[in-house]
Amino acid sequence: MRQAVHAEWTKLRTAATTGWLLVAAIALTVTMSAAAAAALTYPPASSELDTTKLSLAGIELGQAVIAILAVLAIGNEYSTGMIRTTLTAMPCRTVVLAAKAATLSAAVLAAGTIAVLGSLLVGQLILPRNGFTVAHGYQSLSLANGPTLRAAAGSVLYLALIALLALGVTTAVRDSATAIGIVLGLLYLFPIIAHVVTDPQWQRHLQQIAPMNAGLAIQATTGLRSLPISPWAGLGVLAVWATGALLAGGLLLRLRDA
Amino acid sequence: MTATTMPYHSELPVGRDGFAQLLHAEWTKFRTVRGWVIGAFVAVLVVVLLALLTGSGSHTETCIKGKCSPGGPSVPIGPGGEPVIDSFYFVHQPLSDNASITVRVGSLTGATLPDGGGAGGSSAGSPNSQQLPAATSSGVQPWAKAGLIITQDTAPGAAYAAIMVTGSHGVRMQNNYTNDTAGSPGAVSAASPRWLRLTRTGSILTGYESTDGTHWTKVGTVQLAGLSPTVQAGLFVASPPYQQVSQQLGGSTGTQSFTLATAAFDNVSLHGPWSGTQIDPGNRPPPVLGKFQQSGGAFSVSGSGDIAPTVGFGRPIERTLAGAFGGLIVLIVLATLFITGEYRRGLIRTTLAASPRRGRVLAAKAVVIGAVAFLTGLVAATIAIPVGERILRSNGNYIYPVSTLTQLRVIAGTAALFALAAVLALALGAVLRRSAGAVAAVIVLIVLPYILSVASVLPTGVTQWLLRLTPAAAFAIQQSVPQYPQVSYQYTPANGYFPLAPWAGLAVLCAYTALAMGLAVILLRRRDA
Questions:
Q1: What is the nearest CA distance from A36 to chain B, expressed in angstroms?
Q2: Interface membership of A16 toward B (CB under 8 Å)
């Protein structure tokens, strides 16, 4: 397993796109979070504005880049034929997938931490200047504040789970374009359907099973009672999706020719 | 004698290499990959299935004393065929033939009723409640109306023309619910009263205003076709409910408080017996009944309600097309693969050897994938709209009626949106030469701004700019319900109102596609394949 992880780490590290994608994920996340924070004026139109969730809004964009990274991690092997070399060198296919998942998660956790801390920092700089201070009843964006810490740590985990979901889907379909289409479809279609459906129970159920809606519940710090799903349970739903995708991918990897 | 060698010439006739041949070649490439053809069918299927799903998840019920039955409240239909609100207090008398009526409005005041009437929507513990502009300092609603009206009869939905003073939008001339012409601005008070006059000549009605009763300014002229010789004319007062709309993920809930406006009229040019009528669509009695008092030539009239098109009522037809996003994602994948597949397999070198003019190769590809996407969108929308409407209706939902032309625009617009998005994906695929990046870029450009606009924590101002500047602006082509400036409402993307006009929105996507195609042609020519 150690050799497998080392091999996968070398592959991930030396691919030209990896570094660029991680930088792009961080940059896009922080930029969009900053834009969302800067656009807000006090007093807000909304009575229960969640400043923590708002200053982490960039995750909704950054996750797409993380998904690309994860798709390419195995999709590129299929498109170049490298997968056959990999499987010849390491015939135990489960170990290969596990090693890929481990190295990918490590890279995403590192980049995600920077992106989330960057977003919170930008939020701390911009939001109080716009009037969203603790004195006005808004959550402190400092990590010493329990809910903020949970939102920040959860967002990093969210990105890692998105990467694992994308890895699993790509292993199952063996094509980068189809895989990224499926992953982004899973993430982005549920919110739209939940928006169009008008029955409250349907909306609630859709938001409970949607990987993005449920997963991002971890960012909520206000109005927790009215959430369709509690923060950690929501992240659990995403974890179930990711595990399901990895299991399906792993099973197909074992059963099929590469 | 030396033998001369002739250069070799093939016996085969010279093949043509026009654009038609190129199109044929590209079409053959698309047609013969089984997965792509299946993909086009999957796109249609996704749109239709999601129309079924969204239809099944949307019910409208009317609950009276705990008993619920499908179907919403019935609404009157205006002369233009649109559902309208027609609820006001009317002090009237019959008026025959050509005539004129003049009045002076001395004041317009209002009050919001404290108990809220209780007939509003549910009040949810919602994160993003947004308030409409509150009543003006005098307590009157911005669109409270008081003035003169000539109407066919007192039935709700009747044709009318009216000249009025409003809470904070000055003098207006309105007719048949949807038409609105502005007169002079400024609020009315005892210090600055307004004189209003409405004259009828056949089917032509003209509104005038004046500040002193001698110098008159024409506000507008309207024609009411088929107006009968005897009509009802008189004074009216209406005050729309004060709405508090809460936006949250998945829709908006609203609470409304009923309001009452009171206007003082004098110098009425008509004499004779006046009768007061509360105009109301019926099954839902207004919590506030208007009234009038007459003392000599002075009238005090109180009224609640509005004379206006309904906004945010019923489901517009584009609600059945939410699945278009799913179909779009499938087509974006197909269109990207249409070019990146060639790079992955090395077929691009054969293609460019056979047809060295590279710009034309890309143009042929764009035409083929654009046509496939257009057809896919056309078929999907043509099936999804009637199917979705049918399910929505059977679940008691009221489908907002639209003209055939609008319906055609929504269907053809969806098809054009699919085609443009597919060409954009093809162009980005040619630029990046990698599938994953190109697919993700196009999906993020087209779908993400829409999600951020309708279902996120972003403030409305930001979401409106997102839907002006990003390719997601093109979804404006699906908006079938018009926006009425004379009705206060949250005209936000979340409620189905786009900041750009339908075709302007599609033009934004056109510009992005043209730009990407230009870049793709330049790079394809410059780079080695």
A1: 6
A2: no
- Look up the ipTM and state it: 0.90
Minimum CA–CA partner of A53 in chain B: B457
Angle between helices A16-39 and B460-469 (to 10 degrees): 130
Cβ separation of A180 and B440 shorter than 8 Å?
yes
Pairing mode, strands B128-131 and B242-248: antiparallel
On the 0-12 / 13-18 / 19+ scale of CB atoms within 10 A, B270 is middle
pTM: 0.87
Q: Which residues contact B386 (CB under 8 A, 6 or more apart)?
A: none
Measured at the alpha carbon of residue B164, what is the angle toward residues B158 and B167, in degrees to the nearest 5? 115
Residue-wise pLDDT for B412-425, tens only, equals 999 999 999 999 99
State pLDDT tens for residues B4-29.
777 887 787 777 778 899 999 999 99
pLDDT band at B131 (very low <50, low <70, confident <90, very high): very low
* Residue ranges of E strands in chain A: none
Q: What SS3 string covers B179-242?
A: EEEECCCCCCCCCCCEEEEEEEECCEEEEEEECCCCCCEEEEEEECCCCCCEEEEEEEEECCCE
Which three-class secondary structure state does DSSP give residue B492? coil
Q: Rounded distance, CA B196 to CA B218, Å?
A: 10
Q: How many CB atoms lie within 10 A of CB B480?
A: 21
Chain A residues closer than 8 Å to B426 by CB? none
The structure tokens listed for B274 are 């006046």
* B23 in contact with A, Cβ within 8 Å: no
C-alpha count within 13 angstroms, C-beta hemisphere, residue B314: 21
Contacts of B462 (CB under 8 A, 6+ apart): A35, A36, A39
Q: 3-state SS string over B439-488?
A: HHHHHHHHCHHHHHHHCCCCCHHHHHHHHHHCHHHHHHHHCCCCCCCCCC
Q: Just give the CATH number of B84-309.
A: 2.60.120
CA–CA distance from A103 to each of A19, A168, A200, B378, B394 (Å)?
14, 14, 41, 45, 52
Q: Please state, in angstroms and rounded to a whole number, the distance separating the CA atoms of residues A53 and B456.
A: 10
Closest CA to B241 of B107, B122, B134: B134
For residues B40 and B21, what is the distance between their CA atoms, to the nearest angstrom? 23
User: B190, exposed or middle or buried, with CB in 10 Å at 0-12, 13-18, 19+?
Assistant: exposed
Per-window interface: B 38-97 vs A, CB < 8 A: 50, 53-54, 57-60
Whether the upstream peptide bond of residue A228 has omega within 30° of 0, thus cis, is no
Distance of alpha carbon B120 from alpha carbon B246, whole angstroms: 12
Quick one: closest CA in B to A56, which residue?
A: B457
* Domain coordinates in residue numbering, chain B: 19-57+315-526, 84-309
